[in-house]
Amino acid sequence: MTPARFPTFGQELYLRETVMAAKLLAELGLGRGASEAVAERLSHPSPKTRERIAAKLVQRLSSGASRADAAPHFVRLVAGLQDATARRELIYYATTRADPLVRAIARDILHTVLLDRATPAGARREELEPHRTGLLLTVEPVVSMRFVLDYAARVWGFTSRRSVLLALRILRQAGITRTQRLRGAAGLVTAVALAPHGISLPTFVWCFMDEFGSAVPAPTVDRIERSSFARTLVVSTAAVDARLDEAEQEGFVNTRLISGAHRVVPAMGAAETVDRILGG
Question: Residue 239, exposed/middle/buried by CB under 10 A (0-12, 13-18, 19+)?
């Protein structure tokens, strides 16, 4: 999908409702009637609203795995996890796959600027300088909301202000970012900064399997550090390395010498991995 063709959307993260839907669909499955079953459990007064939200929840849960045959395992994982942080991360991950505008903002703008300290493709460094974004002084890396809106319109050809603002809201709801109101030349400026967060072991293991489970050749450590999921979750190299070490210690992945390089491979399939995560 090209950036200019990002679909618009109108649903926030809906954490509580997504967990409810996952628990229901872990029993019923993702097939015909799934959306209707979820809609019946929603409390919104309007039937149309319930139908719309239910359809989006099912779409997002179905998108939690890159392969359709693995989607039921993702649903079972979200339904069975007791770790609220891991659940939230996984729901966010599925949301970024169903609504790729969120992923693009996280991966191509926020990770690039806030962690890589680089300039997003298609932008100029001076566009990020405080005086260009209206900020007088910042004590930590931030991205002005105006820059995100302008970048989406100019570089991606995406002009739905509502969808961009909703994507930024989802990032806040997921605990990835926080909003700051900073003093600018013409008053207060709304900016986006990273919230304190990492990546849980269940999320790391699932995302690793989803992105690299069938990769040939298997990824090296540096490739995992630069992975799409790490950028989408806007986590540092150190956080990725720590979880990779833990995943190997817990027996979820193995490191092997393949074609002259140390490569990381899953230790088991998706079903067994989910069983291990939930059983642990």
Answer: middle
Max Cα–Cα distance, the chain, nearest Å: 61
Least confident span in 138-152, 157-171, 201-215, 236-250: 138-152
Q: What residues does 256 pair with on adjacent strands?
A: 263
| Burial (CB count <10 Å: 0-12, 13-18, 19+), residue 243 | buried
CATH topology of domain 201-279: Arc Repressor Mutant, subunit A (1.10.10)
DSSP assignment of 174-195 equals: TTSEEEEEEEETTEEEEEEEEP
The pLDDT tens digits of the residues spanning 84-105 come to 999 999 999 999 999 999 999 9
Domain boundaries, the chain: 3-88, 101-194, 201-279
Q: 3-state DSSP: the chain helix, strand, coil percent, rounded to 5?
A: 60, 10, 30
Query: What is the Cα–Cα distance from 75 to 61, expressed in whole angstroms?
Result: 6
Residue 77 makes CB contacts below 8 A (sequence gap 6+) with: 90, 202, 206, 274, 277, 278
pTM above 0.85, yes or no: yes
